[in-house]
Amino acid sequence: MTINRDTLHIIDHPLVQHKLTLMRVKTASTNSFRRLLNEVSTLMAYEVTRDMPVQMVEIETPMESMQAPMIDGKKLVLVSILRAGGGILDGVLNIVPGARVGHIGLYRDPATLQAVEYYFKMPSEVAERDVIMVDPMLATGNSIVAAVNRIKALKPRSIKFMCLLAAPEGVKLLQKEHPDVHIYTASLDRELDSHGYILPGLGDAGDRIFGTK
What we know:
Rossmann fold, GTP binding, two-stranded antiparallel sheet, 31% helix, EC 2.4.2.9, alpha/beta, allosteric enzyme, glycosyltransferase
């Protein structure tokens, strides 16, 4: 299966790429890694939300009345895939602070590399809302496929997935299982190693965000 470039969006803005390079450096401190992830996520969110629908509404400026654009429809839902998704979530909330937030807890079984769910908490109304799911890494793709399966059962209007890095294997699996989900990433890296880690990658994003081993 080849990658569908129509639903894969690589955000190659120079600021995003510069900050991603700093994050890849193995000697980057936990503090700098966390700060850079927040900054990159905010920059990426600008592109991910570019096509949000708007409607014209009547407002009063200090000078006169006018028709002005505002985001249309129900408020956005951000879904963070625990635990590392929180590092991206904060950056997206910088520009859409009114969004609803849900969490899915998943861990990858080290033997099978399959996703195992341990937590699921969503806003009361997801139906007919636009959803952006966030997780720093799209590696094997098993976790995000499992997460999208859960969210689709709630009947959202649309689903996008935003990640910092993606591997071809994960992109292909997500596109195969959910061809309607658009993927936004700062980099499509080379491949996965035998343990399911992205190469050249940046290591374990969760460990680097939280300073754990």
